[in-house]
Amino acid sequence: MTAIRVLLVDDQELIRRGLRRMLEIEDGIEVAGEAADGEEALRVAGECRPDVALVDARMPRMEGVELIRRLSAGHPGVAAIVLSTFDEDDYIFGALGGGAVGYLLKDCTPEELVDAIRRAGRGETVLAPSVAGRLVAELRRTGAVPRALPHEGRLSARESDVARLIAAGATNREIAAQLRIAEGTVKNHVSSLLRKYGTPDRTRLALHLKDTRDRNPQSPGP
Question: Which three-class secondary structure state does DSSP give residue 28?
Answer without folding.
Answer: coil
